[in-house]
Structure formats: structure tokens, C-alpha cells
Design brief:
Chain A contains 10 helices and no strands. In chain A, α9 packs antiparallel against α10. By secondary structure, chain A is mainly alpha-helical. Chain B has 11 helices and no strands. In chain B, α1 runs antiparallel to α4, α5 packs antiparallel against α6 and α6 runs antiparallel to α9. The radius of gyration of chain B is 20 Å and the shape is elongated. The relative contact order of chain B is 0.13. The chains are: A mainly alpha, B mainly alpha. At the A-B interface, α2, α4, α5 and α6 of A face α6, α7, α8 and α9 of B.
């Protein structure tokens, strides 16, 4: 980083703690990097919890009877409760992911409405798509002695919330997709716009999971789960890498920051109007 | 701005601000009216005991009335939290990203509290249902209410980071406000693991999950109301808008 050659800023030390302290103190992009690392941390932990601890991904069978479902809850009792405790603890980090993606839209040649609608849509997305699943499965796991019919009802509710929450991700992706395709500032390559279309299509493809209890379209089927998840993983890795490149390209210059009460942001093109 | 004389950016802020003490009173009253809070219900109660709690003619109206009041006013903190977003917007940051982070969090906490409220009201709607069903709605309500601290924690952490990064001669908040928010975040954290224990400090009636968590939220509201009041009034004086 050439920043350290500038006047008044000390060289970056080599130890890990010294480096973090240097970035906190002197890196002009600290706000952006914190959001990016929060995003990476969140998606990694999400993978560990949903795949490794709670065994919600890949999902168990939708056609099991009451006894088999109750057995599944007993088998993963501790994993479910510890895993979802972690999710409850860190769930607010999704706001950092959404903020960074919304910020990418503020760098594009599109109306501010895109960034704001993305924040609005995605700030509700975690509740039905992830937290309700986690709450309901925690309640299912906490009392193994509960009537198996009720445990089965909780199981259906949890997996349908998890797999079958479609609209928020559909419209949210659509907003980002339109912004990328009409953007003239080249914040993202156009192929990523088309990858957004693929992610959007998965939300249509998953709909039959509300109808079928077995086969490729059921909630753990080849199409509704495996192909859709594969697209989502590729898509997530792509945007994490592309957002990193976007932050690396940012150039904030050396100007003084606005004082208390001023309504200007220094990121070029981001000057706020009087409605700030 | 041509219309600066007729419309100013601070207009109405004080009304939103003074909603908070009124809300605080409704929350406090509803908290004490709900019979399951003053002596928090134990998760070890059997399905029959939970059903008896809802069927008790001394409890049922208090459950319904307190949860209706929470249903009205539980969402009411959002305008105040939006004023906090406005304060983050005044900070010396290079991007609006921490403002967006806070904005993305602030509906989460109230919405999840609202869902818990719906489960309590559903349990109380037909208390003569089979006891196992009442117990399940009661479990859903308590786990949602106590365990859903993620957005509140993140909100405190984002505000603290925003304050630490507000490096200017006259920062928007004093630095202790950031330390205070981190402390509240730490006090809320253990409640995330509420479903793990039926007894002890993590259980939903326990020292950490119930008393520390709820006291931390109450303390946050009181302290931040005072801090925000100081900020809003001094900004208005400084910018020549009213008192």
C-alpha cells in the first residue's frame, strides 16, 4: 500500500495486531473493510452452523413421519441449540453485508432509490428466511418430550421458512441486477449482472417445494436444494470477491473530512444533497 | 434551499424525541401488568401448568391487555432509532456505510419482539386448547423474545464503531457513549443461547437471559434518551433552529 508513503502517516507495522491497529488508525477505507470482513466472517460462520452444527443443510427428508422427525431432533439436539445460539448472536452482521452491497449501488450511475430499496428489502429478509427457521428449530429441539405431532409441525414450519422464503431474495436480487446492468461506472462486470439473473431464477425454481414432499423439487431435492444452493454459493463467492475489488479501487483522496453537522461525504460522486 | 424559511431539516425532530419518555411509560406499565414478567415464568413448567397459567381468570385479562399494549407500542422505538441514524449521518465518515448498517438493523429488534407478542396473544386467544399447544406457543414467544438480541447487539456495536471513527475536533457523541454501547452489547450477548438451558442463568427466566438482558435494554433507553436529548437540543441551538 502506497498510503504509508504519504506525509504524516507512519509506516504499517508487521505484526498482526500492529497492522490491525494501523488500519484502524490510518486506513481511509476502514469503514468499508470492516463491513467486508464482517461479511466474510458471517458467511463462513453461517456455513459452519447450518452445515456442520445444525445439519439443516443439506435438509433432512420432507416425507419423514412423526417418529423419524422426533428422532432427527433428538440426534442433533445440542448441535441445533448451540448452532442457533451462535446465529442469534451474530445475526445483526447481515446488516453489514447489506450495507456494503447498498454502498456498491451508490457508486453506480443509478438513482439512490436502488440502494435504499435494497436496504429496506434485505433488512426484513433475515427474519423469515433465517431467524424464524432458527427459532422454530430451537423450540423443536428444546423439549424432546414434546408430542411428536407438534415437533413435526415445527419441523415443517422451519424448513418451509428456510427453503420457501422466496420473494425477499427475488426482488432484492432484481434491484441489484437492474442497477448493475444499467450502471455506466463499471462498478461490477456485466457477467455478474447475469449471474444475478441465475440467482433470481433459483427463487422461482424452489417454489414447487411448497407442493412436493419427495423428488427433485422437494425441499431437499436435486433441483430445489442442490442446484439452487450451488448457484447461491457461486454467486456469494463472486460478490464477496467483486466487493473486495471495488473497495481496493476506491480512492478517497486526502481532503479534510466534513465537520459536525455538515452533510458531505468525501467519497467521489457520493456528495449528499439537501435531503441528507 | 429556497424554502429554508418554511421547512428546516430539524422540524419535527423534537416530537419524535419526546415520544420516547411516553413510550417508556407504556412499556414499563405493560411489563408490570403481564403476569409472566414480574416473576418470570419458568421454562420447567409442565404443559398443564402453562395452560393453567393462561386459563387462570386472574391472569388472562392481564396477559391480553399487556400484550395488546406492547403490540401498539413495541414498534415505537423506531423513530428514535432513526434519529440516531441522523446523528451518525453528522459524523466525519468517508462513506455512509455505518449509517446504512444501523438503518438495516433498526427494524429487526422491534419486528422480532412483535412476533413474540403475536405468539403470546395467540396462546391467550383460546386458552382451552390442548395444553401442549399452549405450551408450544408459549415456548415460541419466550425464545423469540429473549433470544433475539442479534440486531440489538449489532446496533450497539455499529454505533460504537461509528463514534470511534468520528474523528473531528467536535465529535457528535463523546467517546464514553461508544464504550457504553459496547458494554450493553456484551450484556445482551448471553441471551442468544437461551434455548440451551431450562434452569440457571441462561434459562429464559435466568439472571443473564432475563434480568441482565432486560435491564440492559432499559438502561440503554434511559441513557441514550438523555444523550440524544443533549445532542438534539445543542444542535438546534447551534444551527439557530428554535430552543
Amino acid at each position: 500500500m502506497s498510503v504509508s508513503l504519504e506525509q504524516g502517516i507512519p509506516f504499517r507495522p508487521s505484526g498482526p495486531f500492529g497492522r490491525i491497529a494501523w488500519h484502524w488508525r490510518h486506513d481511509r477505507k476502514a469503514e468499508l473493510w470492516m463491513s467486508w470482513y464482517a461479511m466474510v466472517f458471517f458467511y463462513n460462520l453461517f456455513g459452519v452452523v447450518f452445515v456442520g452444527l445444525t445439519h439443516v443443510m443439506p435438509p433432512p427428508q420432507p416425507y419423514w413421519d412423526d417418529a423419524e422427525v422426533a428422532q432427527w431432533f433428538r440426534h442433533y439436539h445440542s448441535g441445533l441449540l448451540v448452532g442457533f445460539g451462535i446465529i442469534f448472536l451474530i445475526s445483526g452482521l447481515v446488516a453489514a453485508c447489506n450495507a456494503l452491497i447498498a454502498y456498491s449501488m451508490r457508486r453506480m450511475s443509478v438513482s439512490r432509490a436502488f440502494a435504499y430499496s435494497y436496504i429496506a428489502i434485505y433488512s426484513l429478509s433475515a427474519t423469515p428466511g433465517m431467524l424464524l427457521t432458527a427459532i422454530v428449530l430451537s423450540v423443536g429441539a428444546m423439549r424432546p418430550e414434546r408430542d411428536p405431532r407438534l415437533i413435526h409441525w415445527l419441523y415443517d414450519m422451519a424448513f418451509m421458512c428456510f427453503v420457501g422464503t422466496m420473494g425477499v431474495f427475488l426482488i432484492g436480487t432484481l434491484v441489484w441486477l437492474i442497477a448493475i446492468l444499467i450502471d455506466r461506472n463499471k462498478v461490477f462486470p456485466k457477467w455478474f449482472g447475469y449471474l444475478n439473473i441465475c440467482n433470481m431464477i433459483t427463487e422461482f425454481v424452489v417454489a414447487p417445494a411448497w407442493i412436493f414432499k419427495a423428488g427433485v423439487f422437494s425441499w431437499n431435492g436435486t433441483i430445489a436444494f442442490w442446484i439452487d444452493t450451488a448457484v447461491f454459493v457461486v454467486y456469494t463467492i463472486a460478490f464477496i470477491v467483486l466487493l473486495r475489488k471495488m473497495i481496493e479501487r476506491e480512492d478517497f483522496g486526502d481532503g479534510p473530512l466534513p465537520g459536525n453537522g455538515a452533510s458531505l461525504f468525501l467519497a467521489p460522486g457520493l456528495q449528499e444533497g439537501s435531503d441528507q | 434551499m429556497e424554502n429554508a424559511k418554511t421547512m428546516r431539516r430539524g422540524d419535527g425532530e423534537l416530537l419524535l424525541f419526546w415520544m420516547v419518555p411516553v413510550l417508556g411509560i407504556t412499556w414499563l406499565v405493560a411489563f408490570f401488568v403481564f403476569p409472566g414478567f414480574v416473576q418470570p415464568m419458568s421454562p420447567t413448567l409442565s404443559a398443564g401448568q402453562v395452560a393453567a397459567f393462561y386459563r387462570d381468570p386472574a391472569n388472562l385479562p392481564r396477559i391480553r391487555y399487556s400484550m395488546i399494549v406492547f403490540n401498539w407500542f413495541g414498534i415505537g422505538m423506531i423513530p428514535f432509532l432513526t434519529l440516531v441514524v441522523g446523528q451518525i449521518g453528522r459524523m466525519a465518515h468517508r462513506t455512509p456505510i455505518l449509517k446504512y448498517c444501523y438503518l438495516g438493523c433498526l427494524t429487526g429488534g422491534p419486528t422480532l419482539f412483535f412476533i413474540a407478542d403475536l405468539f403470546w396473544l395467540l396462546a391467550a386467544f383460546r386458552p382451552d386448547r390442548p395444553p401442549e399447544l399452549t405450551q408450544m406457543f408459549n415456548d415460541l414467544a419466550w425464545i423469540t423474545f429473549i433470544g433475539q438480541v442479534g440486531f440489538l447487539i449489532a446496533q450497539c456495536v455499529f454505533l460504537a464503531l461509528a463514534i470511534y471513527l468520528d474523528r473531528q475536533p467536535r465529535p457528535v457523541f463523546r467517546i464514553w457513549v461508544a464504550h457504553f454501547n459496547l458494554l450493553i452489547a456484551a450484556a445482551l450477548a448471553p441471551a442468544s443461547f437461551v434455548a440451551l438451558a431450562m434452569t440457571g442463568p441462561i434459562a429464559w427466566d435466568g439472571l443473564l437471559s432475563f434480568w441482565t438482558r432486560n435491564a440492559a435494554i432499559a438502561l440503554w433507553i434511559v441513557v441514550m434518551t438523555i444523550v440524544m436529548g443533549g445532542n438534539i437540543y445543542s444542535q438546534r441551538r447551534h444551527e439557530g433552529i428554535g430552543p
